[in-house]
Design goal:
The protein has 221 residues and is of the alpha/beta class. The chain contains 9 helices and 5 strands. It has helices at 2-20, 43-57, 59-68, 104-126, 136-157, 164-167, 177-181, 184-200, 211-215; strands at 24-28, 31-35, 71-74, 83-86, 91-94.
Length: 221
């Protein structure tokens, strides 16, 4: 079973790297950004600002980010999560979202905190501590603590631009329950469906007016 699991992991890594081909949109200090969704949003500039924000305000944690994150992708992730880290290929998959009430700086700060969180997974993996059913609560609690420590540094530097009451998040394991409780097939089918749906939203024809609808408008506004 260990051999099969390793083969599946390697196949998954190969597939992920293949999917990134041709999707590179930028890089910061060797950390490459890939936009697999291509939604025309602010993924690239937001991630660039986020990385520079960590570098400026917390060089020690930025060294950790640079060591354990080689790639950041904008892609659909497992339902219930904002991001997923793959230690074997030093990659963070982020399902990027704009936050309507947040300006560019606050949005970048949010993603900077998220990158600190994910790089902490890298540190733990490098020490042989992989998330499992027996330790996953403790692992996520530690990662959230690290992102909150970084958020506190941002707030101390500029409490107006980086309000602590927004950036510092209380740990609540229920945030991960959907991802933890779903079986492999359920997670896979939901991920596939959400990826297909996300791709359909990219098709320009879906945004064009429906001629029949325009000629025979509905009574509902």
């Amino acid at each position: 079973m260990n051999i099969i699991a390793k083969l599946l992991d390697k196949s998954s890594d190969w597939g992920l790297l293949l999917a990134m081909k041709g999707a590179e949109v930028g890089q910061v200090d060797g950390i490459v950004l890939f936009d697999l969704r291509k939604r025309g949003d602010s993924f690239r500039p937001t991630m660039e600002r986020a990385l520079r924000m960590i570098r400026e305000h917390d060089p020690r944690r930025y060294a950790r980010v640079s060591k354990y994150i080689s790639r950041i992708t904008n892609s659909i992730v497992i339902p219930g999560l904002d991001a997923v880290y793959f230690f074997s290929i030093r990659t963070v998959h982020v399902e990027f979202r704009e936050l309507p009430l947040a300006g560019p700086e606050l949005l970048s700060a949010f993603y900077a905190c998220l990158l600190v969180h994910e790089s902490t997974h890298g540190v733990l993996n490098s020490r042989g501590i992989k998330s499992s059913k027996t330790n996953r609560v403790r692992v996520e609690r530690l990662c959230v603590s690290e992102q909150n420590r970084f958020a506190a540094r941002l707030s101390a530097a500029d409490p107006i631009r980086y309000p602590c009451e927004i950036l510092q998040l209380p740990f609540d394991e229920r945030h991960w329950h959907e991802a933890w409780n779903a079986g492999f097939l359920e997670r896979s089918s939901k991920l596939l469906w959400r990826t297909i749906t996300d791709k359909k939203l990219d098709q320009p024809e879906l945004l064009q007016p429906d001629k029949n609808h325009d000629q025979h408008p509905s009574q509902h506004c």
